[in-house]
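G., before I forget:
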Amino acid sequence: MAKRILVVDDAPITRLMLKDILVANGYDVVAEASDGVEAVEKFRQLRPDLMTMDIIMPNKDGLAALEEVLAIDKDAKVVMVTAIDQRDSLMKAIHLGATDYIVKPFEEERVVAAIINIFGGTK
Amino acid sequence: MEKLKVDKTIKLVAQLAIDISSQVFSKIVKRNTRVTLERVFIADITEITESMAASEGEIVASSIDLTGDVDFKFLFFVDTKDSFLLSDLMLGKEPGTTKALDDYALSAVQETGNILASSISNVFSTNFEVDLKPSPPAVLHDYPGSIFEEFILDVAREKDTIFVIESVFEVGGLDIKCNLFLLPSHDSDKILTYIADTI
């Protein structure tokens, strides 16, 4: 069964680009969220196998949402997504417990490699 | 004298940011992209406001606050039709596929603005150890005058000039004319002058 992924980003075009990459590589994108509030809510409802989480978002940013998701499930797998050079935020995310990160503009190979690595080589 | 120094810093930051943006944008659209810096100049806010108000045709804009050691307001905009092209390029569609403004065209401008603002933030942190944090981009679709008035609303009383950066994204024979406005807060001049003294 394909791994279930929740895609979180405030930009619809970025969600679509990520979704296209994930679906083309055999993953099931179960839902999308456009901010941290929606992300936490959908995580609670759907319990996906993994979520991609943009850092800079309105209402609740990705770091705050990450903390809440990990409070719900400390083993949640969260890949942070951010534009270039938000190094401090990325370090903070890793420190909080993010599983990995990808940098925008992302390359398909990097996205897929990160996810395959998290799932121990299985899709 | 101080104004000249601030001007020098902004021009350098603009050039470095445009260089990074070329590389970054090439990755997004998976095509060779050349971002050319056409002009960087300081403009009088009143004159630019009048000029924007006189501009015809709606635009799509991305507005971002950069806050930290220096505070800026950043505005990126393109003609509405060029937002269709940006969307097609980012989604790997044949240019000309998008015929009407939709969520993806708006979002293409939002993300391009985000990348450009992050490039500026990157230039400040890498080259000058000045940290800036971008806000989530707000995307706007309206007439230039309305968008610009909103953009300068908070700072118009304390600033009388603005930095204008005009650039052209050349992507596979297509030219997308882009405009950036960078509005430093009043108390940022000290840091910008300091940067000019160190370069």
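Chain A touches chain B through 21 residues (CB under 8 Å). Strands of chain A lie at 4-8, 28-33, 50-54, 78-82, 100-103.

More on Monday.
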